[in-house]
């Protein structure tokens, strides 16, 4: 398990992002559909974490010295599954069982899936769990870091702020929250449902060190996540993202939250993704 | 029957936990500002006492994170806050993951007395019992609190321990050793016509009083202290009830889903017999009063147990 401590050369990330988005589209094009928009917005965040930041071994997902990642926005499960498979936690072929009867690959993450630390799906649980992991690391005297990926709509759950207050009070600087700030929830803009801004100021007021980045700029996300934390303050990375990123037809639209694509739509979406990747490569 | 004064179960639990923390590095005491630990000297284990503030659901999640990291967290709150406010966190973070979190729930039943119905907990046994993987324990006196809590630390999975608030009388000194998961047989009469099954300090004492009263009227009575509500000791229950004509349950809990329901479920499937339940009435109790006074007002005392047994046996008054 190699610790990553400096700038990372990872030219494969863009190609991996394309593959992950293809997996996401295929799963969302399956019989049960899937949470497309909030999974597409997460891709770079999860890839940077797994490829560049986390000390983790896909062959031994529960190794005691691992860093911990919790996907608190459990509806990003398809992105998580795709990244875990790409990282070698389980065979990529298994993604085809997503949501088929009897499969562990449910629409919200289950701990039976290798690499899934804790169940999620009911919103507002992950940050409390993260406080527990960070507290245990402190008691154990280890340098384990814990990353909790939250949705922005999820921040409307009061328990998130209970946990934020606790982490700030306890000064848990090994804890990092990453907010997938795509700005949308099922019914529309987050700000129309319950105002989150000024979001960075909210985290700061709770004793955190907020950092704002473009959540699709892998370099910026990497820099934010590899930066040394401020002593005694947990870090909140607010990653500005686009819901449905990669599919112009649904980008930035709340209707991408949960999608049942037919076969034709799915194939068209896959073609769009590949065309984009070809343009980017030129 | 003589009853002696005793420290409260929650104080016995608190002192025991502080003692156990010194020898068991896994233990972490997670508090939601209950006040139970005010002035307690944790000594060298002070780093393993964490007050996370008045935030019960957050506390349950923190405990799950600690437990997944190899610790055995003991969370502290009142019974009703554990069972209702924090329920989703108990279900998703603790029961679903089967993590070894110990939930020390004070103010069980009507123990909060004058604090009113927001602090009463007449639903917790039903709520906790319905969750897969959860063990549910109700010690009947301070001594049992010590023995059952110590045993609970070794359970593979989460445990809910219902504690009271003020002192309650000890069970008679001749009660047999209490073992987690096994009914404590407080009185055994071979071929007894009536079997009384109770949990919690006042209901168990009321059952013993009722048994003495019934015996004086010539009725043979077996009494089980069913301190472990889940998993229920099916063997002991079926064996005691097999030749009985009536089984009467008594508990400090509403009628739906508690000990009486658990007993009725088991006996309906394994040894059908008439089951009559003495429980708190299906209403809230927004009045001041001591635990025992409120419990009698709610419908649970020895006279009701006697009356239920006699009704079940077809006795005429």
From TrEMBL, chain A:
Pfam families noted in UniProt: Transketolase_N
Secretion signal, residue range per the UniProt entry: none
CDD domains: TPP_TK
GO molecular function: magnesium ion binding
Residues covered by the Transketolase N-terminal domain: 32-265
InterPro entries reported in the protein's UniProt record: THDP-binding, Transketolase_N
PANTHER family: TRANSKETOLASE, TRANSKETOLASE N-TERMINAL SECTION-RELATED
Name of this protein: Transketolase
Organism: Lentzea fradiae
From TrEMBL, chain B:
An example Gene Ontology molecular-function term: magnesium ion binding
Pfam family, one: Transketolase_C
Record keywords: Thiamine pyrophosphate
Domain Transketolase-like pyrimidine-binding per the UniProt entry, residue ranges: 7-170
Transmembrane listed as a keyword: no
Cofactor(s) needed for function: thiamine diphosphate
Homology family: Belongs to the transketolase family.
Protein name: Transketolase
Native organism taxonomy: Bacteria, Bacillati, Actinomycetota, Actinomycetes, Pseudonocardiales
